[in-house]
Automatic annotation (TrEMBL):
Species this chain originates from: Streptomyces spororaveus
Tagged with keyword Transferase: yes
Keywords: Cell shape, Cell wall biogenesis/degradation, Peptidoglycan synthesis, Transferase
Disordered: region residues: 64-85
UniProt cross-references to InterPro entries, sorted A to Z: LD-transpeptidase, LD_TPept_cat_dom, Peptidoglycan-bd-like, PGBD-like_sf, PGBDSf, Transpep_catalytic_dom
Entry-linked Pfam families: PG_binding_1, YkuD
Pathway where it operates: Cell wall biogenesis; peptidoglycan biosynthesis
Active site: H163, C180
Protein name: L,D-TPase catalytic domain-containing protein
Keyword check for Transferase: yes
Domain L,D-TPase catalytic: 93-205
């Protein structure tokens, strides 16, 4: 396993690293910078070459140092822990959206005002990454393509928006969006919707 991989074995690796207090974020199944750093730490503590990738020797050592993760450890329902913000989020008014920690942080001048769990599009309808602006907002909106309700929609890239998802609230990470950034906490999103203005920045990053 190495940086860029995405599968259930990576999810198990992350759950085991979390047991070993080397990762604080919930398992996502995506091998990104946090997983690489945690693996490097484990390797250097255990006399292995600190490559940040998991070879056979590293995997065996991690398995023997931890126990088989439970279903809840693999897919915890708890709130995700926010990543260190991307440098592009540190100025102005920004919805700072991390795909690795699956969080949205509303930031003003480098300070986090509020945070919430989010989920993204599937492989077929991925959420675009980069720096965008909020183009327009709609408190009540129904997707013209998918005919699904999109309350508290804040559009940032074509038809992609941050919005409340009843499906995400009900099913969690067992589903995916059609490319939008779904939020499951309606109360938090309603408060955010009132604060965000057209023209505010949106940063989506791994």
């Amino acid at each position: 396993m190495a940086n860029g991989d995405e599968n259930d074995q990576v999810r198990e690796l992350q759950a085991r690293l979390r047991q070993l207090k080397l990762m604080s974020v919930a398992p996502t199944g995506f091998y990104g910078s946090k997983t690489t750093a945690a693996v490097k730490t484990f390797q250097s503590k255990n006399g292995l070459t600190a490559t940040g990738s998991v070879d056979d020797a590293t995997w065996k050592k991690i398995q023997s140092a931890s126990k088989k993760p439970t279903a809840d450890e693999l897919r915890p329902s708890t709130v995700n822990e926010v990543d260190a913000p991307d440098p592009r989020c540190m100025t102005g008014r920004v919805m700072c959206i991390s795909k690795e920690s699956r969080t949205l942080a509303w930031m003003i001048d480098g300070k986090v005002v509020s945070t919430m769990d989010v989920r993204f599009g599937s492989e077929n309808t991925p959420t675009r990454e980069g720096v965008f602006d909020v183009g327009w907002k709609a408190k009540e909106w129904t997707s013209t393509i998918y005919h699904t309700p999109m309350p508290y929609a804040m559009f940032f890239s074509g038809g992609q928006a941050v919005h409340y998802s009843a499906d995400f609230a009900a099913r969690g990470y067992n589903g995916a969006s059609h490319g939008c950034v779904n939020v499951r906490d309606k109360g938090k999103l309603s408060a955010l919707f009132d604060q965000v203005q057209v023209g505010d920045k949106v940063v989506v990053y791994w």
